[in-house]
Amino acid sequence: MNSLLTKSAAELAAMLHAGEITSVEITQAVLDRIAAVDEKVHAFLYVDAEGALETARAVDAAREAGEDLHPLAGVPIAIKDNIVTRGKPTTAASKILEGWKPPYDATVIKKIKAAGLPIVGKTNLDEFAMGSSTENSAFGPSRNPWDLDRIPGGSGGGSAAAVAAFEVPLALGSDTGGSIRQPGAVTGTVGAKPTYGSVSRFGLIAMASSLDQIGPVARTVEDAALLQELISGHDPHDSTSLADPVADLSGAVAEGAGEPGAEGATNDKPLSGLTIGLVKELEGEGYQEGVLASFHETVEKLKELGAATVDVSCPSFEYALPAYYLIQPAEVSSNLARFDGMRYGLRVEPEEGPVTAETVMRATRAAGLGHEVKRRIILGTHVLSAGAFDAFYGASLKVRTLVQRDLEKAFAQADVIVSPTAPEVAFKFGAKSDDADPLAMYLNDASTIPANLAGIPAISVPSGLSDGLPVGFQIMAPARQDALMYKVAAAAERAAGKLAEESPAKDWEE
Ligand code: GLN
């Protein structure tokens, strides 16, 4: 394997800056790796070799001409296929959007293009980002590079698998209930869900708008911070966008890692003065022993790095999962109404009978949407109906408020709170995809959902292996304190070591 492929985005950026390498060389290495291994992994739904090389050439020429460039200029990136890219296929892994080419770029894509990162392709996901394994993709699942018989998590399993398989150093994901963090956990990569509103949702194909958030996928905490800095910022096209200035996340990473400052000495207690809360409700029943062992080992190491710990309790978390699986489908039923066979994407006319708006809609949706998506639209439509609204949707909104209050109380006791990211390591294909029991899949999201319901930032960092499979460590911080989250994440990474070093994907024959 080309040695460029195991380098972090920050390392590649430094080499580019020093003139040791060109973006064309890096981009070509990435494209060659994708060509060699993606047949196994199936992380990509679309590869744009020509587009990526064109950007790489332009960045190299600009550097040659002495132009001022973004620090990540020339470093390749992959994009989850529910983020729209002008003129390039965007499917959300659904047949209903197969062949559709968006007429505009998402705000995050505009920022990535302006910064000069070659976009190498679009990554696989559960259809419309509903799922925890990529098994709901209409185009077949992605595979976990640590064990190809296992799921890479979901919905953003494609982005996580691509980064874990050294196909690309950076990717974008979206996280509505954990779709960046849970794939991060099970593939041994880093994934962050920023504070709600800090990254524009304009151009993210809407699933559940009050929960959706775009965020970074990477192999190191520093890379995730650099990418999140790049995509953050106010956007007038998103009415929920925050006006906050972009925080210095990479500075926080350097602090948390205890990197030598101006005085030159490494800080052995970078977390001194900080209190870390362990959430009682996010361990115990349902969590695998190996996952809990790795979690507690990392907590012990964070104490060695200076942190104090405290037990916190969030009793409402027991109801967070059921509340999410009512609020989320309710918003889905509204957002997905736009896929009607009239405006864009698939259009199927009925085989017999009159061709009316209703019969075309019915035939299009029957043919174009998968089981899970239909299940959620039906459930969501039901919970918003007059007779069911108060009992289900209204009650779920109350739970959402209780979750927010419990978190406020927890953050009064602790600066950040931590938990395992997912209750289990990567499971085998088919283990939880029985249509008769959708709950088995939903239970994977128990630890990740509270952060979405409350709009707070949360990140998953690899904490080690259990039976040879990666385990994720989750850090949650109060809203707008993403920098604090990254500081602790950097310390956790220092404590646990960089898991990617041990990945079997390093030794694959190409
Ligand atoms: N697994 C969750 C769901 O299916 C989360 C999805 C997501 O974050 N996009 O809804």
TrEMBL record:
Reactions catalysed, as given in the entry: L-glutamyl-tRNA(Gln) + L-glutamine + ATP + H2O = L-glutaminyl-tRNA(Gln) + L-glutamate + ADP + phosphate + H(+)
Amidase domain: residues covered: 25-483
UniProt keyword terms in alphabetical order: ATP-binding, Ligase, Nucleotide-binding, Protein biosynthesis, Transferase
Catalytic residues of the enzyme: 80 (charge relay system), 155 (charge relay system), 179 (acyl-ester intermediate)
Superkingdom of the organism of origin: Bacteria
GO molecular function, one term: transferase activity
SUPFAM superfamilies: Amidase signature (AS) enzymes (SSF75304)
Single Gene Ontology BP annotation: translation
Single GO cellular component term: glutamyl-tRNA(Gln) amidotransferase complex
Enzyme Commission no: 6.3.5.7
Alphabetized InterPro entries for the sequence: Amidase, Amidase_CS, Amidase_dom, AS_sf, GatA
Gene3D superfamilies referenced in this protein's UniProt entry, alphabetically: Amidase signature (AS) domain (3.90.1300.10)
Known role: Allows the formation of correctly charged Gln-tRNA(Gln) through the transamidation of misacylated Glu-tRNA(Gln) in organisms which lack glutaminyl-tRNA synthetase. The reaction takes place in the presence of glutamine and ATP through an activated gamma-phospho-Glu-tRNA(Gln).
Similarity-based family: Belongs to the amidase family. GatA subfamily.
Quaternary context: Heterotrimer of A, B and C subunits.
NCBIfam families the record matches: gatA
Protein name: Glutamyl-tRNA(Gln) amidotransferase subunit A
Source organism per UniProt: Actinobaculum massiliense ACS-171-V-Col2
Upper lineage: Bacteria, Bacillati, Actinomycetota, Actinomycetes, Actinomycetales
